[in-house]
Amino acid sequence: MSAKQRPETTAYVRITQQSWQKGKIEGEVKTESYEWRFQWHFRRGYLAVQPTLGRALIVEPLGRFLERYDYQLEPGGDYQFTVRAKL
To answer: Is residue 5 in a domain?
Structure first.
């Protein structure tokens, strides 16, 4: 299967809260079919995602996105990334 034939989904991220003192970023992530809330405790490397429905599909790609862009993310900011799967 070529790269052009792989399914993709755009995930939209909104940062709702950020605390460098607590080492935490909170926000929402949405796709066409799902919507989750997350808390990323970046000092501990822990990502909590709710609700559980579809969580297994988003945890890994969301974690990679947050690790890559953590210092660039700001409360109220809207971001997006591509998931290489159809969600």
So the answer is: no
Residue 22 domain-assigned (yes or no): yes
Number of domains observed in the structure of the chain: 1
pTM confidence score: 0.87
Can you give the pLDDT of all 87 residues of the chain as single tens digits?
A: 455 678 899 999 999 999 999 999 999 999 999 999 999 999 998 999 999 999 999 999 999 999 999 889 999 999 999 998 787
Mode of pairing for the β-strands spanning 35-41 and 24-30? antiparallel
Dmax (CA) for the chain in angstroms is 46
